[in-house]
Amino acid sequence: MWKEVRDREAGKLPTSAFASRVRSRRLSALAICNHKEIISPHHGAVNSLQVDLTEGRYLLSGASDGSAAIYDIQQATEYEKGLIAKHKSLFVVDKQHGYGHKFAISTVIWYPVDTGLFVTGSFDHYVKVWDTNMAQVVMDFKMPGKVYGTAMSSVAKAHMLIAAGSADVQVRLCDIASGAFTHTLSGHRGGIMNVEWSTSSEWILMTGGCDGAIRFWDIRRAGCFRILDQSQSQFGRRPPFPERTPTEVVTRTAAAGSSSVNKLISKKKATLGNGKKQSQAVCKLQNLTTSHTMHKSHPGTASSYSRATAHFGAVTGLRATRDGLYLLSSGSDSRLRLWDIESGCSISVNFEATRLQTNKAIQLALSQDSSAVFIPSMSNVKVYDVLSGLNLQTFYGHYDMVNCCYFNMQDQELYTGSNDRHILVWSPPSSSFSDMDEEERKRLNLKADEDNWSQ
Amino acid sequence: MSVWNYVVTAHKPTNVTHSCVGNFTSPQELNLIIAKCTRIEIHLLTAHGLQPMLDVPIYGRIATLELFRPHGEPQDFLFISTERYKFCVLQWDPDTSELITRAMGDVSDRIGRPTDNGQIIHGLLKYGNKMKLQIEIVVFEELSLLIGLIDPDCRLIGLHLYDGLFKVIPFDNKGQLKEAFNIRLEELQVLDIKFLYGCSRPTIVVLYQDNKDARHVKTYEVVLKDKDFVEGPWSQNNLDNGAGLLIPVPMPLGGVIIIGEETIVYCNGTIFKAIPIRPSITRAYGRVDADGSRYLLGDNAGLIHLLVITHERERVNGLKIEHLGETTVASTISYLDNAVVYVGSSYGDSQLCSVLIKLNLQPDAKGSYVEVLEAYVNLGPIVDFCVVDLERQGQGQVVTCSGAYKDGSLRIVRNGIGINEQASVELQGIKGLWSLRSSINDPYDSLLVVSFISETRVLAMNMDDELEESEIEGFSAEEQTLFCQNAIHDQLVQVTATVVRLVSSTTRQLLHEWNAPSGYSVNVATANASQVLLATGGGHLVYLEIEKEKLIEVKHIQLEYEISCLDINPIGENPNYTTVAAVGMWTDLTVRIFSLPSLELLTKENLGGEIIPRSILQCTFEGVSYLLCTLGDGHLLNFLLDINTGGLSNRKKVSLGTQPITLRTFSSKDTTHVFAASDRPTVIYSSNKKLLYSNVNLKEVSHMCPFNSAAFPDRSVWLYELTKKVLIFYWLYGFFSIQCSANDPICFIFLCLAIAKEGELSIGTIDDIQKLHIRTIPLGQHARRICHQEQSRTFSICCFKNCQISNEETEMHFIRLLDDQTFEFMSIFPLDSYEYGCSIISCSFSDDNNAYYCVGTAYVLPEENEPSKGRILVFAVEDGKLQLIVEKETKGAVYSLNAFNGKLLAAINQKIQLYKWTLREDGSRELQTECGHHGHILALYVQTRGDFIVVGDLMKSISLLLYKHEEGAIEELARDYNANWMSAVEILDDDVFVGAENNYNLFTVRKNSDAASDEERGRLEVVGEYHLGEFVNRFRHGSLVMRLPDSEVGNIPTIIFGTINGVIGVIASLPHDQYVFFEKLQANLVKVIKGVGGLSHEQWRSFNNEKRTADARNFLDGDLIESFLDLSRSRMDDIATSMGVTLEELCKRVEELTRLH
Known about the structure:
- The structure holds two protein chains of two kinds.
- Chain A is an alpha+beta fold.
- Chain A has helices spanning about 1-10, 15-30, 245-260, 265-290, 300-305, 440-445, and strands at about 30, 35-40, 45-50, 60-65, 70, 80, 85-95, 105-110, 115-120, 125-130, 135-140, 145-150, 160-165, 170-175, 180-185, 190-195, 205-210, 215-220, 225, 235, 315-320, 325-330, 335-340, 345, 365, 370-375, 380-385, 390-395, 400-410, 415-420, 425.
- In chain A, the strands form seven sheets. In chain A, strands 2, 3, 4, 5, 6 and 7 form a six-stranded mixed beta sheet that branches. A five-stranded mixed beta sheet of chain A has the order 20-24-23-22-21, with no helix packed on it. A four-stranded antiparallel beta sheet of chain A has the order 1-31-30-29, with no helix packed on it.
- The two termini of chain A are about 40 Å apart.
- Helices cover about 5% and strands about 50% of the residues of chain B.
- Chain B has six helices and 91 strands.
- Chain B has a five-stranded mixed beta sheet with strand order 86-87-88-1-91. In chain B, strands 2-3-4-5 form a four-stranded antiparallel beta sheet, with no helix packed on it. In chain B, strands 6-7-8-9 form a four-stranded antiparallel beta sheet, with no helix packed on it.
């Protein structure tokens, strides 16, 4: 690190390269954390984890006992022997809570804009929106079946929609602003395990179902516009962009969005106008990729006949890369697939020796530059290089199936939740112990070889 | 509260990042365009060298600078793209000498990952005119990747901004830009992209690295119709592992040169030629010939090579490389013309070199074909600096660690102009000082007339270049001289209280005299070569004209009051005659302009106030005529003077000192300047048609006159050697012995100033007239840390140099001790192998009066990611030597050291550690661990104030710690929870801290000690955000200017910062009412001053990092605010009106701010 610091100050190392080098170095040094512990209050499997997107400070966890908890991961609640930071939950909402979930919480997410709200989804068919400060439910949505997954778009400027996937075949979009469902998206032939918003457009939603299909939706249009097909894989050169690339449209939308608030009206116009163009593009693309099986009909309805699958069995995990180019999916076929979002083709990457939980939605995590993916693999967590599929590392530490992982990009820390009810922290090593001077150790009455079993 | 901050640049960026050459300002003119990160400079290539035409700021960090010529255009356009994904196309407007924006836009995308390895920037141009040169310029930083390039046939602009995407902006038939589109680029680890010449379809050649780290080259054709690539004509696999630079070769040869670390390869699909080279990293190239057969290559050791492609019938049959010589480490190379090359550097001074590439020319004695003609100062990268007052005048100077590699140096940066004293004599009671020449056309001054209360003495330069007493027979020696001057027809004129004497300068005999009427004595007088104006008691104003051997009284008027000062300095076209005279009056305190010879009153300007004018001067700077008038209290008024009507306008008032000021003109490098002699001597000069005031490094000057003599040479002289066809410029420093042959008709004009100080007459040379004066101490090694010790009057630096030990490049690190006056090395302490110096301070400890240097080091072992061992070394300076007193081993790199409550506070990797200074039983000293604080990722930057410790973390922003004396422990009080990657921190006051971070932003945070909840108290509130656009390496408290206690700005606290680009900037914490006022002014200025290329100021200054963008707040852009003074009068008036203040008031307030730096 020292050399990088020096080269940066002399201008020899560009600052962005400095940051990415430090990050990748820290990433490659991840190990079970020796200075930080999260004290899990849960009495059941930890199913979902997320750190807030604004400050990177509060970890939210949801567990099978119907409880959700929040921890401050920056500021420890206490220190053991002055060194090991213990992070106890700031508060827990569980079955005892008046409005708590009755059954297992399968998914927890933060409201992306601030830490004032969070969302939980449960097997009791409810999606609940909580006020963080009051620890109270402010809104709930009754879903037709067990809720498996929820998602909110972090790039959204024009909507506050929670996409929720449940045991029902329809994806529902719950609007926090109105408290009602705004959309039901039909197409899947099984329950929906996973929902994921596009990282480049606030209108694009990707869902993975128990039917093995991954469908792409433009929520401004009826029907789904793309179904990923595992047989459509891409060798060699990627296909070109369609004539009018959605990216460009997005760029302009974004430009309009970043203008001041009082131009809201013009912004809306802009997005509508561009939306049309985009969907034309989408139609064209649709025709390009799937026209050989399709008749000329409405792309939305046409797609509902498609039986293309992304995985054999259910799609258990979905994660889009931050650059908006790729989608990673995991399935109950124990496979991990990488997809090119633009073309909808699967990119042939051989992820070595994956073995995945088959009966449950799992939560994948990506590193900051999306070069590495963290995958719960039975009771371990495996790290793969996204583009080559190399297994970079395997984390052993949990005693039971791992359900979820979340990578905190701010601190390069990984949090994993497991059926063993623990939340483990994996972090780059801190030499707090080793660099302590003798005199200080004496002061703290610590001996390196002492543990609870010593006399 | 230091919440409201004003950020201003005291020294502009000097790090040359890009340069290119072309016909930008006119089809006939050849221009060199230089980018200095956030500024562009346009130079014109003339027979006399480079002539600056324009220097403008860009609201962005320049990522690409390209000249290109769309079809049908007679001259080139300039394409600029910025690191925040804006681009613009600029054209020169010959009428206004400004830049016109032809096109602009935003090329950012929501998808794609920024090519985060940095940037490569390419230029590629083609001239229609075959006589002109074709030039390519490249900046290459290792692993760098934001690329912008233009097709040689101007069909499209290509940009590689995000991994896997290639953005194309096509041109239409009329040369207008069309809508951009993206093409997927298969290769993710792209090292370089270039367009190939001579292809029917635009073809790019891509140098990339695969995931097994092997490097290959591939070509793609861009099909505009399909908006896609098709596989290009050829590719080449498995190149040199260090291949990093592509040079496309123009037709008729075509193809591309691939520069590696050990080989250079030419290939074009059919021919493949390779030659081995000495291992080196080539950073820049410049094409010499239009046909692309020769290139100059510059590597990171500063060596320049010539690469020659040998070819036969347009078929390449080999490559040849020749070592030419050494320059500064080049970041860009631009071949100008006639073997003159501009070498732009990021790590040392940029240079203009003459490269003798003709094979028949012989190298000089050192085997070098390179001759440096001119050097342009570059302070970057400023890695560290300290603020000291070496001359003990109450004015800070900045001593920077600048440069890198072999160009490492110390730079002493001082506000104001240096006078280097060459000779002095003790002379009491000097009342006036004039220099005379033996004839009016003589280039040298040979006589110095010194006037005393009742006598006048003449000093002359003798054959041994010494001043000795002389005599002018015709002069009155028993009287005080009021004025004397060389006059036309080889005459001299002397004015005393009673008489005006006209003396022959050859015979020195009196020719004619004019006597004051009896009962009246002359009070003040002035003269030029053909006119004399004098005033006697009773308000009589007498105008005389000088003719051959005759003084003629032309006009005589009486004014109602006594005259205090007058001036007839010629400002019109005739250097010997003026048609206007300026007169300052007692009693009614006016300045009056009279016409000559009629002595008609043209203008009367009331000065206001109660202070009489003491000295008045009319002069012309850069073609603009001014009237300067100083008051008895040290203020200076300046007006624009209309020579024809005598009208005065645009009144401005500044304070230069506290005592009466006398004004005198002098010239240096053919430019007129004014010397204001007072208790705070100042040089007044003009730059960009704006008057600037630079103080001089002298304490008090009562009189000054220019004294140009052969013995005291001007420090810089251009010598044009016209005998050879090649124009060679010699840049001469300091003294040199004159070795002109008898037949050489060149004259040397040396400028000196004769200065009368308290009881002393001295003669000195003057530095270049510029606001900041920079002195360079070359080190030949890279200095990283510096500190000054007052007690021993020494500097100590941590530095290193690269050494070659048995084929392995290693670094040797040292601690060096330098004298703070002479900057001579006094002592050196080598560190262990692998041991690097990281931090250095001078401090003393409690119970010990000695001052020590404390050095923190790290053992950087190749196999370790992070140093796990380091040392703290405590040195005392004894007999000018560094004496190691104590060493203490640490468990990591000592990134920072601070003196803290008589103890030593060290930042060691993740930890803050406090050491106390204890006495052992045997009387020796030791550092003993007291307490520490964990919980940082890397505590890189630490500042302390009282018991408070502010830590800037590698990636976790700022945290505030408190040392608790009773418990002997350090605890965290508060923290900023944002993820800022810090590069420097400083404490502004008890509550507010400023930080600089990795994305070129500044921000301030405030301690919330009064907040209600623990949670809020534990959080440092972000109160200010600002995009500086510069990477700050260091903040230091201090000021570059003398603080006058009476001025309003005297009490504004300032800190100085230094950046990678060589910027020295000032952050001033303004009082709230001032901040509000200037914020309003800034808002008004943004509407009036448009950014070059239509770039928005608001967007440029908005805080921006990977996560978010937010408008700047609680920071003001001083550079913008101070550019108010450059506006035209009418625009200034408009702004003053909308601000609701008078223009004079507004100018005064802005000018006061300019005196902060």
